[in-house]
Amino acid sequence: PEELLESELFGHERGAFTGAYTQRIGKFEQCHGGTIFLDEIGDMSLKTQSKILRVLQEGEIQRLGGNERIKVDVRIIAATNKDLKRLIAQGKFREDLYYRLNVVTLRIPPLRERKEDIPLLASYFLKRDTEAIGKQIRGISEEGMRKLLEHDWPGNVRELENVIKRAVVISRKPIITAEDLIIEPAPVRREIPEAEMKAILDEIFERAIERGEESVIGWLEREMILRALQRTGGNQSRAAKLLGMNRNTLRSKMKSYGISVSFTPTASDDPVR
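and the corresponding C-alpha cells:
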C-alpha cells in the first residue's frame, strides 16, 4: 500500500494512520548525510514521486501525520526496469523528477546480452542458497551450465536466482544437474495483426505531419536510431546490427541527424559525442 511505502521512506508520527502506535523515523532521515537506493522507482505512484521530488529540490521531508519540515541531505541512487520516457508520455511518471534524477545514467544490459556473467552469478547464488539451507552441493554440472547459457533469461538475474534456488531445494545430489534446473518457457509474445500494425503506422504518420516534419521517413528513421542506441546502451555496433545496417552507415546517419551519444567504449566501439 502507498501509505506503508511513504511511511517507510519518510516516517510517520504517532496516530498518523491505523496501527501507527509510535513515531517512526523514515529511511530518508536515517540516511541523512549518506546515500539511499530507491529500487523500481518507475512503479511508484505520482503522489510518492512528488514527495521524492521535494526532497531533491528543497532537501526536506515531512513525516506522515506531521507538520514539521525536516531537513535531510541525501544522495539518491534510483533503479528501474521500466522505460521512464514512455511512462512520462503516458502520464505515469513526472518529467521534472526524471530530469532531477537523470544526472548520471548507467544502463545494465539484460542477462541475455552478457551471458559470460551467468557462471559467476550461478556460482554465487548456489553458494548462498546451499549455506542458507545447510546443504552440501559442490557445483553445477557441465550439462547444467550449458542449459543455463542457452536460455535467454527474459526475467534477467532474478529469474536465474530463482532457478538456482529451486534447484538447490529439490536436488538430492552433490552436483546440480540439468534435470534439477527447471526453466519455464518464455511467455509467447502476442503477434500484432497486420491491420493493427497499419493503424499504428497511420497514427504515427498523421502525428508526424501534425508536428510539421518535412520528411516523415527521416523522422521515423531518426527515432528508430535513437531507440536502438537507447536499447543497446549507446553501443553503435550492437545498434547497427539491431537496425540491419553496418556501423559506418549508422555513424553517417547519426551525424546527418545530429545524434550525439556518449557511453563507456568497448574494444570495437568509440564514444561519439
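(Above: one complete record from the training split.) Confidence is low (pLDDT under 50) at residues 263-273.
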